[in-house]
Structures are given as structure tokens and as C-alpha cells.
Design a protein that fits this description.
The protein has 262 residues and is an alpha+beta fold. It has a single domain, classed as Transferase(Phosphotransferase) domain 1 (Transferase(Phosphotransferase), domain 1, Orthogonal Bundle), CATH 1.10.510. The chain has nine helices and ten strands. Strands 1-2 form a two-stranded antiparallel ribbon. A two-stranded antiparallel ribbon has the order 3-6. Strands 4-5 form a two-stranded antiparallel ribbon. The radius of gyration is 18 Å and the shape is globular. The C terminus is likely disordered.
Length: 262
């Protein structure tokens, strides 16, 4: 109840009457992100839509890590916990596993491992040491889902094993064909440099060594650049470079829409 941000679901109230226990959040008209990535019967999200959702979720996490006093680690970032309102704006939900993080002098919280398989930070899983980079790893997995449309864990045909989405994309990226990585439902409608940059950000986030992962602040900046490139493509400004993308990113962002430059 003490945290408020446009990219976090608002707590409306709670019920505690005998056996009836409930927490009530604001209504989110478009359900969760997972539904729109896995249900191929629905209209596929555009590349711009996907980047806006990614930026929104990243901004929510950035707020928890940097603006809350003390900082908060969500601990269960996954595509089903990113909800979409009537405007398809992303909001983080389900704070049942969240933990407060020591802001003064602490490097981690020692705690029993909790989270969702596939999204769980492997370093945290081994050491029981939780820090903000654990959320970064989980976000990276979600970003890979957004980019590829693939499930987090894929069964390997004719083999009794599974492959994680980060391994799959790393293997595909080594071959250098971004068109093979991006969700085919987009039918090639995306800015190539934007997509490559998004993949690079996602793979940095899912690095197994937490110290090598970017902060959520860095992730927000990088994803805004990806979005700026895609917006430029749509306004017939192909060939936008990183310098111009940073220039667009440095603009003031309107309070009603963090993604619309004034």
C-alpha cells in the first residue's frame, strides 16, 4: 500500500472475513502478457506494442529498486505477473514473494529460494543470496519471451531434454540472423537494429553472473532507445543511429504517458 507507480497495479482493498481471504487489485482489461504471447488466435502484438510493454514493466522494476525506501525486490517477475490495462499499458502484479532489500551497506539478502522455474535467477538458486539483479535476470527472460514468442522452456524433439529460452536465443544469435529470433507473427514488421539491441539487452540480463547484468535503470534507457528506433521507422525515418536514439531518449517524457515525447 505504500508504493505507487503507474507501472505497478494499485491495491484496492482486502477481505478478511473468516475463511474468506482476498486481496483486491485494480481491474486490468487485457489480462496478462503471457496470454497475448501464447494465444495465436488473437491479433499479435506489434513490435512497438511489445517494446512499450517492456519499457513499462522495466520502469516498474526500476521504481521498486531505486525509488522505494527501502528498496524492494519483486522476486517473481514473469509474463503472467505483467498485467495490461485497456490501453495495453504494463503493470507489475503479485507482490506475495517480494522482499525488502538493505539499501545501506548490504549487498544481498540471504533467504530461502522462491520464485518460478525458468524465471529464477540461477545464481540466487545456488547461493540463496538475493539482490536486485535477481529481478533483472527474471525480467531478461520475460524480454526474451516478448521478442521471440517462445515459451520459457522448450522440449527438444526426439530427445529427453529441455532447453531454456536464453540458451535457444544465444544459439540463434551466434548465427547472426535476427529474423530467425524475432516472433514470426510480426511478419518482419520491425526495425532490425531495434530488435538486435533488444536481444542484446535480454541476453545481458540473463547472464548467469549477477555482477555482469545491467541495472534496471540501464535497461530502461536501452529499451527506450529500441522504441525510439521503431517509432522512427514508422515515421519513414529509417537508418536512425544510436546517437539520434539517445537524443530522442533524452527528451522530457509527459507525465500522462512515459513513452510519448513532448
Amino acid at each position: 500500500m505504500r508504493v505507487h507507480h503507474r507501472n505497478l497495479t494499485n491495491l484496492v482493498g482486502c477481505c478478511n472475513e473468516g475463511a474468506h481471504l482476498a486481496i483486491l487489485y485494480e481491474f486490468m482489461a487485457n489480462g496478462n502478457l503471457k496470454q497475448h504471447l501464447s494465444d495465436r488466435k488473437e491479433t499479435s502484438l506489434s513490435w512497438e506494442d511489445r517494446l512499450r510493454i517492456a519499457v513499462g514493466a522495466a520502469r516498474g522494476l526500476e521504481y521498486l529498486h531505486k525509488s522505494c525506501k527501502p528498496p524492494i525486490i519483486h522476486r517473481d517477475i514473469k509474463s503472467t505477473n505483467i498485467l495490461l490495462n485497456e490501453k495495453f499499458e504494463a503493470k507489475l502484479a503479485d507482490f506475495g514473494l517480494s522482499r525488502i532489500y538493505p539499501s545501506e551497506g548490504g549487498t544481498h539478502v540471504s533467504t530461502v529460494v522462491a520464485g518460478t522455474p525458468g524465471y529464477l535467477d540461477p545464481e540466487y538458486n545456488i547461493t540463496n543470496r538475493l539482490n536486485e539483479k535477481s529481478d533483472v535476470y527474471s525480467f531478461g527472460v520475460v524480454l526474451l519471451e516478448i521478442i521471440t514468442g517462445h515459451p520459457v522452456i522448450t522440449e527438444v524433439e526426439n530427445e529427453d531434454k529441455h532447453i531454456h529460452i536464453s540458451q535457444l536465443v544465444t544459439s540463434m544469435a551466434s548465427e547472426g540472423h535476427i529474423e530467425d529470433i524475432v516472433d514470426p507473427c510480426l511478419l518482419g514488421e520491425f526495425e532490425v537494429v531495434s530488435a538486435k539491441k533488444a536481444v542484446e539487452v535480454a541476453l545481458k540480463c540473463t547472464c548467469h553472473t549477477s555482477s555482469k547484468r545491467p541495472s534496471m535503470n540501464e535497461v530502461v534507457v536501452e529499451l527506450k532507445e529500441c522504441l525510439a528506433m521503431e517509432l522512427a521507422r514508422k515515421t519513414n525515418s529509417r537508418g536512425i543511429g544510436p546517437h539520434l536514439a539517445r537524443e530522442i531518449n533524452s527528451m522530457n517524457w509527459d507525465s500522462e504517458s512515459s513513452l510519448q515525447p513532448r
